[in-house]
Amino acid sequence: MKYYLIAGEASGDLHASNLMKGLKAEDQEAEFRFVGGDLMAAVGGKLVRHYKEGAAMGVTDVLRKAGTILGALKATKADILEWKPDAVILVDYPGFNMKIAKFAHARGIKVFYYIAPKTWASRESRNRKLKKYVDKLFIVFPFEIPYFTQKGIPFIYKGNPLVDAIEAAEFSNVCDKPYVALLAGSRKGEISRMMPICMEVADKLHALPEYKDWKIVLAGAPARSAEDYSAWLEGRDYVQLVFGQTYSVLHGAQAAIINSGTASLEAALIGTPQVVCWSTSAVTAFLARKVFRVMDHIKFISLGNLILDRLAFRELVQEEFTSEAVLAEVRRLIEDQTYRGKMLSEYSEIKKALGGGGASRAVAREMISLI
């Protein structure tokens, strides 16, 4: 059968690539055409457009890239019509993918949504569209089960694919000194907001006698290049940039500073003590709080904390995201063994809540059966 997949960012590329492997295992005639990234391309099929061409975060970033996004939307619709897939599989990325869902549904193409839009956090109006345009929703977090049940949206839950991805990972040594990992996000906007403060943290940590020989190991995002980080790395030989080894960077770190997102859950599953940091533009923050009322719906911004419904690790959000606060938390993660041990214990509960392995292949079987 023919599967058209659309993933709009690095985490979607990871999940979609594992799903594609599951589909290939269950359907020997599987053909793929997709908007996605390098991981999906490595599985096979035709990469129509790389997700990094249209990645946007926040209202201001979306407005700035509106022309590019609209052009990509038009081209993707035309490509779907020409290829005539048996199913369109949408992976997260709701601003773009909800429009594709409506388009494909209207033309009689089966629509599967994998990694549900986070309507439990904001934009609940999208639930009406999920009911109307999506044939089946596939969720990956246990806390989504009661939410989508209450909303009357049919779904399938087969666990979380990150469990498989991390269990299959091979870790290597990325640094010969003790270090703190830094994952600054995958989008340029995230990087530009994370790096200045995190480099202040690096400077202050390096100035402490007991941390003089430590390093900050920066895990470069898949869609980025060294140039995206170079302005902040000049003159800082105690900051090391590493590409293509994110899991290894996390595995060997004594602690991690992480931009909120999939990376935070990956750190929990790998077992790296962490602090999550996040900020956005003043306009986007205002809209989130006052218009979309995001924080009225959710207590936490990190998936691990949401899964437990309590703080397993600290979140420094917007005004709280300062170099002083981050440095203090990093030192506590490294130096306070009781604090560190409690966090690792919470991680065990997070992993248990996500279920066992085999999620991607189980979802693939369900999709094939529905087709």
What topology does this entry show?
Blueprint lengths: L1 E6 L2 H17 L4 E6 L1 H6 L2 E5 L7 H7 L1 H18 L3 E5 L2 H13 L3 E5 L11 H8 L2 E4 L4 H7 L4 E3 L3 H7 L11 E5 L4 H20 L7 E6 L9 H4 L5 E5 L2 H7 L2 E5 L2 H9 L3 E5 L3 H10 L2 H4 L5 H6 L6 E3 L5 H13 L1 H17 L5 H12 L1
Parallel strand pairs: 1-2, 1-4, 2-3, 4-5, 5-6, 6-7, 8-9, 8-11, 9-10, 11-12, 12-13
Account of the 3D structure:
With 371 residues, the protein is α/β, with parallel strands linked by helices. The strands form 2 sheets. It has a 7-stranded parallel sheet with strand order 3-2-1-4-5-6-7, with helices on both faces. The chain has a 6-stranded parallel sheet with strand order 10-9-8-11-12-13, with helices on both faces. Helix 1 crosses helix 18, helix 4 runs parallel beside helix 5 and helix 9 crosses helix 16. It is globular. About 2% of the residues have low confidence.
Query: Cα-atom Rg, whole angstroms?
Result: 20 Å
Shape from CA axes?
Answer: globular
Tell me how many strands there are. Answer: 13
Terminal residue distance = 9 Å
Query: Structural class, from secondary structure content?
Result: alpha/beta
Essential attributes:
single chain, 371 residues, alpha/beta, six-stranded parallel β-sheet
